[in-house]
Amino acid sequence: MQSIISIQNVGKTYAGGFTALKSVDLEIERGEIFALLGPNGAGKTTLISIVCGITNPTSGTVLADGHNIQREFRAARSKIGLVPQELSTDSFESVWNTVTFSRGLFGKAPNPAHIEKILRQLSLWDKKDSRIMALSGGMKRRVMIAKALSHEPAILFLDEPTAGVDVELRRDMWEMVRGLRDNGVTVILTTHYIEEAEEMADRIGVINHGELVLVEEKHALMQKLGKKQLTIHLQNPIDTLPQGLDAFGLDLADEGNQLVYTFDTQREHTGIAELLRALNQQGIEFKDLHSSESSLEEIFVNLVHQNQHARQPAG
Ligand SMILES: Nc1ncnc2c1ncn2[C@@H]1O[C@H](COP(=O)(O)OP(=O)(O)OP(=O)(O)O)[C@@H](O)[C@H]1O
Ligand SMILES: [Mg+2]
User: Which residue numbers delimit the ABC transporter domain (predicted)?
Assistant: First the structure.
């Protein structure tokens, strides 16, 4: 099936000469929830702005549902709803009028029933006559989402949707996003909350210094997540691993003072008992055991870190 968004070779160098995106290739599949993770300044908002036609790329092309975002802007843009990171919400207008007006901007016929539905879904119905400026921050963010959904887009971009949103509301929002996906909407979100990506996403992309350093199915990542390490601190250092331990795939660390055993927590049988027995048989004594688990957060930090080192000039 053709992807709903196709990003090919997209690069962006801002007027001042700063390169925010190098050469990004990314295909977003129809109906998925895709989470884009990355530290501040990685290029997430820049990428979203390009796909939404707000910023022009320096190179490359973007297709939204088959339409070229530059050459067929209106057709491409009408498929997309965008909730921007920066809220522009000091309006005197009412919630109802603001959301209704947004729909009109896309040339769609009025549909009060649709507006009512999304306001209710977002728990904004009792605020429909309030002025935007009189709402709390979390409510304003929900109004932005209502605006983005007003023209029934097939693709929804959420740039930091839950920044500054309380825990309960965040859960409601996740629920809503899942509901949208169930109705066939493709959702791309950026977040700094790793657990949000873990909870929501079908696939995860990590961007750093304008480069996509990883794109993976969440479940595949979770398997990496399921990896645990047992570090065995030896009484006496060893030079080489005895053959009797081959089956465990151990690594020697800390100049032969440590054995590192990596195992899968999702397997019922970890093999730790056998390993300790085998060590005993080989006459290898140890003084301490230490286990650690890699989280998505760790994978993320490592990736970002590696990428940073790779960038530093040698020497
Ligand atoms: N209009 C602009 N002119 C020049 N540089 C810009 C402009 N907009 C963004 N940048 C730079 O491009 C880089 C990427 O910014 P971007 O907003 O895409 O990051 P981000 O990943 O969304 O970060 P955050 O998590 O903080 O929102 C940053 O270094 C930023 O300073
Ligand atoms: Mg941003």
Answer: 5-234
Portions of the chain given CATH number 3.30.70.1560 = 227-293
pLDDT tens string 269-292: 778 889 999 999 999 999 999 887
Q: Whose CA is nearest to atom 6 of ligand 1?
A: 14
pTM here is 0.79
- Range list for CATH 3.40.50.300 in the chain: 5-222
pLDDT exceeds 80 at position 82 = yes
Residues in the chain: 315
Give the pLDDT band of residue 301 (cuts 50, 70, 90): confident
For the domain 5-222, what is the CATH code? 3.40.50.300
Measured in angstroms, how far is the CA atom of residue 189 from the centroid of ligand 2? 11
Residue among 44, 54, 82, 192 to mutate when testing ligand 1 (max atoms within 8 A of CB):
44
CATH code for residues 227-293: 3.30.70.1560
Q: How far, in Å, is the centroid of ligand 2 from the Cα of 208?
A: 12
Residues with CB under 6 A from ligand 1: 14, 16, 18, 20, 38, 40-46, 85
Rounded distance from Cα 40 to ligand 2 centre (Å)? 7
